[in-house]
Amino acid sequence: MVHVVVIGSGAGGAATAARLAHAGHRVTVLEKNAFTGGRCSLIERGGFRFDQGASLYLMPEVFEETFAAVGERIDEHIALKRCMPNYDVLFADGARVRLSSDVAELEREVAAAEARAREREAEALAGKRGAVPRAMPGVAGLHAYLAEARTHYRLSFDFALSRNYETWYEFAQPWHLVLALKLHVLDTVWRRACKFFGTEELRRAFSFQTMYMGMSPYDAPATYSLLQHAEIAGGIWYPVGGFHRVVDRLLHVASQRGATVRTNAEVARIDIDEAAGLAKGVVLADGTRIECDAVVCNADLVWAYTHLFPDSCVPPPMPTDETPARPIPRHIRRLDALRQTCSTISFYWGMRRQITELAHAHTIFLSDDYAESFDRIFDGLSLPGDPSFYVHVPSRLDPTAAPAGKDTVTILVPVGHMRHADMPGEDQDYEAMQRRAREWVISEMERRLHIVGLADLIEVEQVNNPMTWRNAFNLYKGSALGLSHDIWQVLYMRPSTRHAAYGNVFFVGE
Ligand SMILES: Cc1cc2nc3c(=O)[nH]c(=O)nc-3n(C[C@H](O)[C@H](O)[C@H](O)COP(=O)(O)OP(=O)(O)OC[C@H]3O[C@@H](n4cnc5c(N)ncnc54)[C@H](O)[C@@H]3O)c2cc1C
């Protein structure tokens, strides 16, 4: 029987362990933390339950397929609650766009946003002779946008998301050029939103979703409007018990089929037989050696290449300053140069009372300096002066997330990733950024939602910053969503899911 070691118990590791165990292999899952789930883990404090990372359950068909592949019905493991509406997008001037799966409601939101824009324009043009207000695309723009997003979703699903391009000839098919045109890979999400929507509010409300992938709408290929299709057509859901429930049940299925799941089991290195070009086992941080026939690495790919193999080394912070002790292998330099997604400062707040001013499970607060805020995150690797943020209240849908009469609130403020592999840059003072982000979030929530004394309502608090993400889950540069999915880092151009030199080492996950 083949013995497979899975390094990490995140969503990717858990799903792979379940599939391998279901196929009859001997599986050992090794997780460095005392808890499972990685970025889908829970934080539990004072009776409050927080989703540490993922909170939006999208594309339910993918989760269904994962459980079906191991002979299980997902509804026997997970109870889902649907978010109705999906969320509110709140703007600095108090305006609101509500996004939902109800197309009639979306049409009303578009009409209302255009009416607000017309009013503002009429004020600006008052007294200017001959000035003509701009024409607005109206609901026709919405429908054209939704149709395009649906096409992006369907084509991406069939030809990208569900396929692994391991060779250039699989990838370089002439008809893929036609596909690329249909997917608008050279256009951006922002430019397409501008094509279909006439107001700044709507353009922002239908473009910020690229941040689910840790990318700016000004850089993300237009293809990623597939996310908007996913949430509008398929809905946003929430697993009762928290997002971790998905991982927990997959690990349960794996265990039922004989897999061993060990926590507090940090893998320090992968043991390699250089002559054979194969991994022969792993060595834990406490020195324990575990032999195996194959390794599936669920730890962040760039982190793994720079930490777990015989030629691993972390690129020094300032490669130009000093000659490193030993030359950095070319493949490591290349991996270090790849673009990473952003990170977050995440606040986990247990509230003394229900914050009913937050009407839904999800609310988006958008920055007034929309474009600049992305520049600060992705070019400056910093916290914007006027940051956008996302607020999640799981207890709005699932009362088990908070004690009776109270609320669990998680706030994600996107920030740049760490400047260096394992440490922040000199200009990245996370304590100071955290303080500024906290003040901003509290003042904007109070202002936009008319809440008084929000800070005093916080009973329990925990904060994650890029360094926390890096340390807790070995995320390279503290990047929340791994390597960027920009057009030059997807499909065949993304590092392979199989190790370049050792044929029995595979990568799974973000
Ligand atoms: C703040 C935030 C919000 C998000 N929101 C959403 C959302 O709303 N919806 C959504 O679908 N996705 C969301 N995501 C993304 C989602 O959480 C990730 O895509 C997913 O959880 C990644 O799973 P993974 O298995 O690839 O990696 P991980 O979850 O990182 O799992 C890797 C595991 O490996 C372990 N590990 C690492 N090194 C070692 C080692 N040496 N030895 C042993 N174990 C090791 C880690 O501890 C970890 O448990 C969010 C992510 C973040 C950070």
Automatic annotation (TrEMBL):
<protein>
    <recommendedName>
        <fullName>Amine oxidase domain-containing protein</fullName>
    </recommendedName>
</protein>
<feature type="coiled-coil region">
    <location>
        <begin position="96"/>
        <end position="123"/>
    </location>
</feature>
<keyword id="KW-0175">Coiled coil</keyword>
<dbReference type="Pfam" id="PF01593">
    <property type="entry name" value="Amino_oxidase"/>
</dbReference>
<feature type="domain" description="Amine oxidase">
    <location>
        <begin position="15"/>
        <end position="510"/>
    </location>
</feature>
<dbReference type="InterPro" id="IPR036188">
    <property type="entry name" value="FAD/NAD-bd_sf"/>
</dbReference>
<dbReference type="InterPro" id="IPR002937">
    <property type="entry name" value="Amino_oxidase"/>
</dbReference>
